[in-house]
Amino acid sequence: MNACDIIFKTRRKQPLSYDEMKWFIDGYVKGDIPDYQISAWLMAVCFNSLTREETKNLTLIMRDSGETANLSAVGAVTADKHSTGGIGDKTSLVIAPVCAACGLHVPKMSGRGLGFTGGTIDKLESIPGFNVSIDFDKYVENIRTVGTAIISQSGNLVPADKKLYALRDVTSTVDSIPLICSSIMSKKLATGSDCILLDVKTGSGAFMKNTEDAKALAQLMTEVGRDAGKKCRAVITDMNQPLGHAVGNALEVIEAVEILKGSQKDRLYELCMVLTSNMLELAGMGSIEDCRKAAENAIENGSALEKFCEMVNAQGGDSSFIDDYSLLPHAAHKLEIYASADGFISEINSEDIGFAALLTGAGRSTKEEQIDHSAGIIMNCETGQQVSRNDLVMTLYSDSQQKLKSAAERAEKAFKITQEKPEKLPLVYDVI
Ligand code: URA
After folding, report:
1. How many domains are contained in the chain?
2. Which of 58, 153, 247, 395 could pair with 357 in a Cys bridge, judged by C-beta atoms 3.0 to 4.6 Å apart?
3. What is the DSSP string of 72-87?
4. What pLDDT, on the 0 to 100 scale, is given for residue 366?
5. CB distance 184 to ligand 1 below 6 Å
6. Helices 52-63 and 211-227, axial angle in degrees (round to 10)
7. Any idea what the CATH number is for the domain that residue 220 is in?
8. pTM for the full predicted model
9. What is the DSSP string of 125-137?
10. Has 122 been annotated as catalytic?
11. Which of 81, 183, 213 to mutate to test the pocket of ligand 1 (most atoms within 8 A of CB)?
12. 19: domain range?
């Protein structure tokens, strides 16, 4: 086989066979095929896409490029949730303990944030002592006994995605539906859960800027997941505004705990309930209505918060912060931003907020960069709200005054104030 022939075929929209795809991807992982040939092929995929069969083959070849997790020792049905990436998305911190409190076992191997999107692992690392690298046997034991565990994805899982994603990042080939599908689904299949719920984001802060593309991605991912023998469902949800009020690691942990305490019943709470009930139903735990009731009860009766504490303690963390948030990292400086005019908040652009949070120190632009767990943004208002000039709309936190200044310039751009009340956007667009 020859790499040029493979690139040429994709350039001409001629489907690759399984063997051709395997030779090409395995050759890249082994270092036999250079970055420049894979880059050319990735660009051809961006322009010409792949067939469903090719996408499925690519996903399975990527899944099998490294180790896969065997969760049979859990001895029960397992379910995982994956979001395609958003701003202020702390739903995993809520959904995992709520599902566990309802009797569903939830294994989670999560990633760190990169660029303007956050990562569950960084959020959890703001909890004193929390270990995201417990060994695999302990991980399985915690899922079995506590009901959930969240760890950082092992370095040996899907090495093909590590190499390909890094290359896509620097060749402007990230936002291709088959490439996103194979990247996400190869990792989800390798992490071993029986059921996979996908939260496919659409809007200004998502890879998929419109609902048609989000639906196409959701359709493809669920088909590939089902073909691989998993129960799979996708919920398409709005990412035109940040999710919840907090963006930044320790700040988001606090917000997740407030949801678990039942003291915040807003859009974020609603999304957590929608995703949890779909996950429970997908795992065969009753009708969607019964699953919703079970999830709400777990918040009301405190069992979800208890599960969260159990999970934190079982991974070496100190859960006493849930009664005293000062035990979490807190920023040395803050900067308040006020409304520039009277009117309605018609837009809070999530991408701008994501970048502003990055500038406070809450995120990293390169994999090596250290993050400041205390940094981030609290939105003191929400889309649709009426404000008067000089009302507080946002508070920025950081360990550096200079970072706050640059972050504020970007954050201010995120807000649009208009005289008309904006139309309310749906939270959920579709379930596939
Ligand atoms: N998240 C991933 O893991 N891969 C992508 O390609 C996009 C989002």
Report:
1. 3
2. 247
3. GGG-S-BEEEEE---S
4. 74
5. yes
6. 60
7. 3.40.1030.10
8. 0.93
9. TTSTT--TT--HH
10. no
11. 183
12. 3-48
